[in-house]
Amino acid sequence: MKSRHKRMTLILGGLLLLVGATALVLSAFRENLVFFHTPSEVAEGKAPTGRTFRIGGMVEAGSIKREGVEVRFAVTDTARSIPVVYSGPLPDLFKEGKGAVVQGKLGTDGVFTASEVLAKHDENYMPPEAQHAIDQAQQTAKTLQQ
Amino acid sequence: MSTSESRFNLYHYAAPQAFYPVAGKLAPAFAVIALLLTAIGLWISFFKAPTDAVQGEVYRIIFIHVPAAWMSMFVFLVMAFWSAIGLAMNTRLSALMAQALAPTGAMFCFVALWTGALWGRPTWGAYWVWDARLTSQLLLLFLYLGYMALVAAIDDPRRRDKAGAILCLVGAVNVPIIYFSVKWWNTLHQGASVSLTKAPSMATIMLSGMLVMALAAWAYTIAVALYRVRVLILERERHADWVRGELARLGEAN
Amino acid sequence: MSAFSAILRRDMLLAWRSRADLLISLAFFVIVGCLFPFGVGAEPNQLRAIGPGVLWVAALLSCLLSLHRLFAQDHQDGTLEQMLLSPDPTVLWILAKVLAHWLTTAVPLLLITPLMALLFDLEGGAIQVLTASLAIGTPILSLIGAVGAALTLGLRGGGALLALLILPLFVPVLIFGAGSVDAYLAGTGASAHMLLLGGGVLGALALSPIACAAALRISTE
Lengths: 146, 254, 221
Hints:
The structure holds three protein chains of three kinds.
Chain A: H1 2-30, H2 39-43, E1 53-59, E2 65-67, E3 70-76, E4 81-87, E5 99-106, E6 112-119, H3 128-145
Parallel strand pairs in A: 4-6
Antiparallel strand pairs in A: 1-3, 1-5, 2-3, 3-4, 5-6
Chain B: H1 2-13, H2 16-48, H3 62-89, H4 92-124, H5 132-153, H6 157-189, H7 204-236, H8 241-253
Helix pairs in contact in B: 2-7, 3-4, 3-6, 3-7, 4-5, 4-6, 4-7, 5-6
Chain C: H1 2-17, H2 19-40, H3 44-67, H4 72-76, H5 79-85, H6 90-119, H7 124-151, H8 158-186, H9 191-220
Helix pairs in contact in C: 1-2, 1-6, 2-3, 2-6, 3-6, 3-7, 3-8, 6-7, 6-9, 7-8, 7-9, 8-9
């Protein structure tokens, strides 16, 4: 009887552990398991200040300006855009209107100084998070217009 | 009535001795089907399917690559199924089926990786990129190799069957976790230029070619697994009288 | 519970009596970590970038190195069969053995990780995240590894076979462990990674002792 008791406790413990594991994994998904912030988030002050982080979105059309070794452009999710300054080699696929992820620090003047620029390849490919952010931003813009 | 009959039949054929002749009849049939389907599939792939607008002729590798990748994943699932049955019902044949399937799964895994590399070179400019699908396929190959190595390392047949089954189930639990983590890791570390996510809508003729090839791979897997399981049965039951008789018959035929 | 603590105490004592073995896997961790700068160059930016991943891989290998001893001695002297026959629940004393393994191999490694991180020029916050991720992640390695150790018990070529069996299963732990430091450095915070690793520990805690018990029964039959 006693060993049966023990067995039941163990099975119960195992089930509790599994429930706990599921809860932790689910809450991990609620945290941002993304690896970049969107320009809207940055504008709302959700991004860390004084630390390195990444911004993901589209390179705004007509925003690329080259000044010597420096390149200035803006990353947008169509609702907000963040000006970026970067000096260094740009990837071949970096183009206006295409997806890009930039890593760097946000200055006090609101200009993002990038230390690294990643371009996304495909015509219509965009990181799903960025696509989601753009959809949401457009949705808000629509509701505001109405 | 009929259910009890079919139950009886299933249990009857779960005995290696009873399954041996059935496998011997089914295997050549599936081999013929596989051969026919491969011929039709290759004909569609190379003569009927048009050249792809973007990728040119290179895309034709998908007629082998995609069915191989599908099959490599599916075979692992089937192995896990047989392993679970073997552990739960203590049937020797289930473990033998899993062992018979493993080399074919590993082979398809390797073919998928290899053809993927050949396709990647002209398309991406690199034989290998750490794309999520490629990486998880590679890890799947390691799981297959681990299973085969474990089974080969154990001499005692009972221990071999059960240890293999446990490893297979542990692997099957981990496959989704591995796939998820690799996919997530890939979005994080994806290099500048590569994306597999675009799925161009496929012309019907291309799709049908691929499906026929997939069915061919299916038939091939069944045929080869049945041939292999026959050998495994003979090896396992070599001290039984019926195997002596069978071996004598085979010897005379040669 | 008494069986749990008795086995834990016994295994800790045995580990302490052969502490040279423990030092070997610790030294292995340090040396593997130190080899990388020689291989890839000592450029600080590069070292900072690869540091967390290298230390995680070194921890993984060091854990692997000590795993095949987990049941080997008990198997040789017959203790294992006695324990399997005992009325105490098998999973309980397996957990005790795994805990002892973790305490004797992973904890020393955790203590030395901050020092190793300095060699890779990691800053204070990153070192904390790295150590925390190792603290949460290494129990998963011990738990999954125990299944592999039980399956390969007494087989020829056991060590290499064990590596082939369980290293692919370690990949998710490696990804989220090393990824946590990257996420911290990229400014998105490591909490999601820590939660996933924590979920992994609980899941492995629930499932792997069962698989391990089954594997031990098969291996000693």
